[in-house]
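Predict fold of ABC transporter domain-containing protein; 754 aa.
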Amino acid sequence: MTSIADEAVSTIVVSCKQTRFHIESPNYRELDIEGLDITVTSAPQDKAKGKGKAKAANGTEILSGAKLRLKAGNRYALVGRNGSGKSTLLRAIAEKLIPGIPEQTRISILQQTNADHASSDHPPASTPGAAEGPTVLEDVIDRATAKSDLEREISALSAGVNGTDPLAALRALRALRHERMLKRLFVLDKDARLRSGARGLQARKALVEYEKAVAKSAELKDQPAEEISPETLQAETQEAADMLADLQLQVEPSRMADIESRAKQILAGLGFTDAYAAKPASSLSGGWRMRSALATALLQESDILILDEPTNFLDLLGILWLQRFLERLGDQPTPPTLILVSHDRDFASAVCTDLLILKDKALTYFTGDLATYEKAQADKKLHLTRMKEAQEKQKAHMQESIRQNLAAGRRNDDQNKIRQAKSRQKRLDDRTGLNVNERGGRFKLNRDLVGYHLTARDEINVPQDERPVILSLPDPPDLRFPGSLISLDKVTFRYPPPRGSRQLLAPTLQDVTLTVGEGDRIGILGLNGAGKSTLIRLLVGEAGRTSYAGTVAAHPRLRLGYYSQHAVEELQRLGRAEPALTALALLMREAAADGGGETPDEGAVRGLLSSFGLAGRVASDVPIRKLSGGQVVRCELARLMRRRPGLLVLDEVTTHLDYETVAALREALRTWRGAVVLVSHDRWFMRGVVEGVADEDEGGESDAEEEEEEEEEDASARRRVVYKLAAGKLTALDGGVQQFEESMEKRVRKLLVD
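Predicted 3D structure, encoded as tokens:
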């Protein structure tokens, strides 16, 4: 069976194997799809001829012969590198492009948001002319329940039933019935296109019959009054009254009050105060629109819930609330099946019961979290390696014995020894090896032997490691004289009052003192709106001097690299302005500008881009506008590191990265010689970079001597401090990330009161 879906610039081609037993599964929370193929191709649908696989020949293959198996109520973390096709798979599921997903399945999805100026540090603000339209609360309820559609149908039927025209109820009923039939026609048309073979023929026949029914409905909708019999009028008038009563039950005040209560609780957990929830939905900025969309997905009654990076733009309070909310879904009588994509390891590990791994165009499954999976894979590889080494050693020993016997037999013309040596050689070729198979079970000839006859036994296949993500950060140059890199002394910052107002606003920062020395690791935690971005702008010199009081000083030889939370959007905007601009061309242009117009070393620039995973033609041929979000982040980091900064100020750098790149960046920053000021809501990332915690998720332990050397270095020079920014005050946390997390947990428990 094949499905084709058009996008603006690409087409998703889906095909799979399916038996009749899976077509109308009564459990809509489960999926069991065999032989799933998904390809993204730029070929227009109307030009593609033949079967789906033929159409997909020139596209990018995402899955090939995969098995998609989702068990009801399980919570899956979808794992895969940037560009592996996670979002494409989620879209194919959400839009039911995969044959075998019943149309009755209720699927809610939160997709990644690429809104410009999506700020996570400032609440939504009113904009001129945005006072029209529904409030945030009304908009969330309407999108989750289709309340406006129900009210529109109720209004139309009510006008007909209560009207003075005796035909009004019949006309309203027929118009509503025809509208619903058109929606059903769309579903049947899609079903006919998805199915092939005998079932496809049957679906197309059903579509033709339904098209006739729709045409007849259109005629009845406009039927002249004189052709309507009294019996038909009475029956359909009663039917209209019954339908009106059913619809009114769906918007019953008690039911809607319960939905509104749940919506308020969800919005509060995601950071909306009552005042912000009452603002017009059209006034929200990008980050708050994403939270509104997340609230809609959580409020909807669904069989399958899909969340693609839901923690983007959430602070730690919102992340912990969402974590607890999703965990509590399992307490429901029929919890939805969850598919989650998240670069936040702590969040994904706490929420999900299983891993769904997209790798090498296949889907594999693992019960447990990512750390357990990585350790299990490492243990399996070690076990198979030892088995293979033992097998090779045994084969070598037997081969040497055979060689000696054969030589001795030929030297002494001993035909018995020659026959014996040949017999042992045959046994070695056909059967000899270990006593167990790859899975650890006892070897059985009729089960584990390759082929139909006594041919060679299958070799033990030791899985090859996927090329790891390694980020190389060049060390900064030495400063000629010592001193703090940046220091803030009793700094107070306040934004200017709105135009026309003389009342001063409360200070965003108050008496902040902060010093960053060479090699220091400084972490800044705080809720959205606490002033973290304002503090960062002060550190990097982007705040106006008249906006603050106090002292801000920087080392005269400081080279600073600043990664803004809007860096991806800004670089993508540059790519759209210059459609042919590549990462290599951009860095070469900037290097030439820094060098006074001299031609930079292209090899060095290519090497730098390669060290950040943008190698070869990706760097030189692929325009920036076509790079994925993760690749754009790598390009921006390469731009920063080209200048060899001594201080990196990173504001939410992990947002668009896959989990493997986050782990690589964490390890690179953990041991880098320069200083780092990090703002992040990713607890695992913050613990590694700032607190220096080893990569426990890899299941490995640092060498004792290496730990001692690092401890000596930290004690003598490197400071590791985690600060909390709240109410304009900057406070050092003795308990680090754990202390801040525990304080947020207390607030989450209050928000989740039943």
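Confidence is low (pLDDT under 50) at residues 43-57, 113-131, 452-456, 697-705.
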